[in-house]
Specification:
Layout lengths: L18 H15 L3 H11 L2 H9 L7 H26 L9 H18 L6 H10 L3 H7 L7 H55 L1 H4 L4
Length: about 220
């Protein structure tokens, strides 16, 4: 016979749910309905769906009361929720077109360390390497990817070398632009001055008779 709770509870899938909020709602329902351990566990199992239900079914030693269930539940899903959030942030992390490589690296390593603190084997070395390369800005990515770096350190070295070379090239280009711009301006001023002088000479020649003193 299906259990019909008096206080409504939301399903818990273990995917996008907030673990602590759901547990708080369960405890309120237990208190409001006066459930004993058997009734509480029956209600809880009714609302576990998808990943959460698979997790419970996979337990060898299934909890017989709510407190035992709560301990196992929090140990698994609190970490699971945390790592899901970290992994989501990690996989969408991008350098962007304006962020320096050093800044991107700092964010990348910080997020990776947080994930590995929960599960050291969550990502393989090739996955970490690919994630780092895919997050690079387009101008660096198109130069680093064809080099096929074999390790994360190789990719970091290639990235830093390219950024350094690009920075030097941009500096040289800027200096060259300033120098060429100055020369071009001088040339234009010189031509303008020559044009004014020629017009003045023609004007004076055309009006020479007017300004010439009488003999």
């Amino acid at each position: 016979m299906a259990y019909a709770p008096i206080t409504k509870l939301d399903n818990f899938t273990g995917e996008e749910d907030d673990t602590q909020i759901w547990l708080n709602d369960v405890e309120k329902a237990i208190t409001a309905n006066g459930w004993n351990n058997a009734q509480a566990m029956q209600a809880i199992l009714y609302f576990l769906k998808n990943t959460a239900n698979l997790w419970y079914q996979s337990l060898i030693n299934k909890p017989q009361d709510f407190n035992a269930f709560k301990a196992k539940f929090l140990r698994y899903f609190s970490n699971n929720n945390s790592i899901n959030r970290l992994v989501n942030a990690f996989t969408i992390m991008k350098q962007g077109e304006t962020k320096a490589v050093t800044t991107y690296l700092g964010c990348f390593y910080q997020n990776l360390r947080q994930i590995q603190a929960i599960d050291a084997n969550y990502f393989t070395a090739p996955q970490i390497l690919n994630q780092f390369i895919c997050g690079l800005c387009s101008s660096i990515l198109q130069h680093v990817r064809p080099l096929h770096p074999g390790t994360l350190q190789d990719a970091v070295t290639c990235t830093r070398d390219f950024e350094s070379a690009e920075s030097e090239a941009n500096h040289a280009q800027a200096v060259n632009l300033v120098m060429n711009g100055s020369s071009e301006l001088d040339s234009k001023l010189e031509k303008f001055s020559e044009s004014i002088n020629k017009r003045l000479e023609r004007y004076l020649a055309d009006n020479h008779a007017i300004y010439q003193s009488p003999q």
